[in-house]
Amino acid sequence: MTEYAKPIKRRKFNSDAAWGYAFIAAALLIFIMFTAYPVVSALIISFQDYKPLGSTFIGFDNYTETFKDSLFWKAIVNTIVYTLLTVPVSLFLSFSVSILILPFKKRMQTAFKAIYYLPAVASGVALSVVWLWIYDPMPEGIFNKLTAFFGLGTHNWLGSSTYAMFSLVLMAWLSSHGTSIIIYLAALLGIDGSYYEAAELDGANFFKKLWYIVVPCLKPTTLFLLVTGVIGSFQVFQNAYLMTGGGPDNATTMVGLLIFNNAFKYFEFGKAAAQSLILAAIIAGISVIQFKFLGKDVEY
Amino acid sequence: MKKKMRVLASVCALSMAVTALTACGSKDNAKTAATDDPNAKDTITALLPPVSANFQSSFDQISKDFTAKYPNLTLKIEPASWEDMTQKLDTQVNAGSPPDIAFIPSDGIPKYVDSGMLMDISDTATDEMIKDYDPAPLEYMKNGKGLYGFPAYMEAHAIGGNKEFMEKAGIDYKKVQKEGWTFDEFREAIKKGVVTENGKTSRYGFVFATAGVTSKDYLDILVKSAGMPSAFNKDLKYTYTSKNFLEVLKDMRVMIDDGSMPKELSSIDAGKRWNMFLTGQTMITGKGLAGFERSAKENNEKLKNNDPNAVKGSIPVEYVVLPVPSFAGAEAQTRVAVDGYVTFRGTKEPTAAHKANVVKAANFLSSGQVAATTNNELYVAQITESSRKAAESMPVDRDPDNKAAVETMLQHAVPARPDIPTDLGAKALKLEDEVIVPKLQALIAGEITPEAMYDAVKTAAVAAFGEDGVVKD
């Protein structure tokens, strides 16, 4: 037994392993500093009345205050509504565009991928300014001109509770599918061509091939994009902050915006940290449910 | 060889760790004077936004002039955009390493006092310095008994009109500039300013920016002239539960309902309403700042010279400063913006010498030549004796009626309220952000009634301050 143990010990400390540890140490250090440390700090701060010159421990007060806060629950509902409206549609649009791009030659595929990825490279602030212009509430606004042309009248897109959420959702539908399209396309290219050939021999049409070959083969990709999409959507902040500021009447106040306001507007870092951790727990719970119910027959 | 590799790897890992941790270390005390010697060399840091058009480009000169006056001191100025200013400062404050001086609106003082990071300079500012400032704006830099910096200017928040349109509508604007007006008089005036062509409104009587950063301004400016100069009365009872508050809400709604203001008002931001004013889509606009007269003149000049940079579709406009009307029989009081140079401390107690040096720098920036130049550019009144003297030789192309109107309004400026405790102030701010502004947006969009908004504010106020903590009339 001792003879077997010795070589294992030696392997741990040979020169290759030493370099390995050095490189792991670098990544580990970055992870500890920029991920683990902030998370642990947030956990500690969530039990404190945070002040730069000395915080005081207040137990679960920040959590109980958050659970009693009607605005927090309104923000949660708004975030869920936004997620339900944006993520499935975004996945469907990305999937559809990928299917449409697939038949092209590689050069054309690359060109389309670049075009669709462009909004992800552009500044979110710049995009928001353009959308603010599109949603100009006056009759001469671009979107109002369009709706008036189709006889739908003009609307106060960002200034009324009825349309503000829809306006943010529409903005999400029409932008930033680049990453999903690239991932879907990579997955589509990975499907063995023999499946299609066999299906064609059996007389399958386009939709049958899509339903019985493409959709099942892309299930792991769809699950990945769904989980990451839901996580990203729950953390949405920029659109609400720049476009509506959470209004009107808190109709577009998302949890991310609420946390930001508590931290940087009111300096209530303890409450903001507690809300961040509650949000993290909600996201983790939803992700587990997604994996449990949608990931049953997924093979990686 | 293996041993050498292990050592090398360990050294690599260790040096990375040390480098990273060093980068995270605080340099809070590096800038402060290590001794109490007032003549020791010291560096004062300042985070300053573009207060006026040429302010940031003159930073090098300001620093040189400061060192010429105080040879042992260096003023290190970090520029920031208006957009970045708050976020940058808040991050530095909460990390415990703020700049020594920052330029902020005085209404931000309670928040930073509460964080414990503002430096009370009441024991360090000399009598000579204090005497230089007008008392009213200086009061705005106080909280409780502490003085937390020096004011740069006190600007009246007014409204502004198009001279030609008002004359056509038969409005005696010169009388209004001198004597003010009631809401009923104002309403009749803005009704006359509305122009309708083919059933569509081509010009509104009044447009006030209510979206984005201006969301708080509209109501806050109006309630000052409705007997509520502050969110708290002298007994520290919350005032927005008063019936006058409901009257103002009703008046705000009625101006939209009768077509004097656009129904899309809730989405009109500061840029949009200025564009509407310059393109002749409104007769009167708000909020109005003194600098708007200069902006209008500059655009007129561009139009005259066929400059393509003139605002698209704009017309020549003579900007007239107007006071906000009074409501419910109350005395008109002017909301003022007092911005200034506030003084911060680090996590460690500053030395007396450093504190005195910071005060010298804040005083240097807010008075004399620096303040004279900046305030002149902004068209705002000088608020120190030294800057008034320095500005004597500086030409100002300002309409004398507008200048007189602003001076009249400043005589009715809402006084500062340093007696409001920071915890009450913080609660009022949160109530404003989470209830008043959202409900106001809904009111302006026609989604709720003035009564519904009033009830919501009253309920939230009672929950925040208690039954006995609010005004009942």
From TrEMBL, chain A:
Membrane-crossing residue ranges in chain numbering: 21-47, 80-102, 114-134, 163-189, 210-234, 272-291
UniProt similarity note: Belongs to the binding-protein-dependent transport system permease family.
PROSITE patterns reported in the protein's UniProt record: ABC_TM1
Membrane topology summary: Multi-pass membrane protein
Biological processes annotated in GO: transmembrane transport
Pfam families named in the record: BPD_transp_1
Cellular component GO terms, alphabetical: plasma membrane
Cellular location(s): Cell membrane
UniProt entry keywords in alphabetical sequence: Cell membrane, Membrane, Transmembrane, Transmembrane helix, Transport
Name of this chain's protein: Sugar ABC transporter permease
Chief site of localization: membrane
Residue span, ABC transmembrane type-1 domain: 76-290
Stored InterPro entries: ABC_transporter_permease (IPR051393), MetI-like (IPR000515), MetI-like_sf (IPR035906)
Organism listed in the record: Paenibacillus mangrovi
Gene3D superfamilies assigned to the protein according to its UniProt record, in alphabetical order: MetI-like
From TrEMBL, chain B:
Signal recorded as keyword: yes
Compartment list: Cell envelope
Keyword field: Signal, Transport
Primary location recorded for the protein, binned into one broad class: other
Gene3D superfamilies linked: Periplasmic binding protein-like II
Entry GO terms, CC: cell envelope
Pfam families documented for this protein: SBP_bac_1
Residues annotated as signal peptide: 1-22
Keyword Signal assigned: yes
Family: Belongs to the bacterial solute-binding protein 1 family.
Annotated protein name in UniProt: Extracellular solute-binding protein
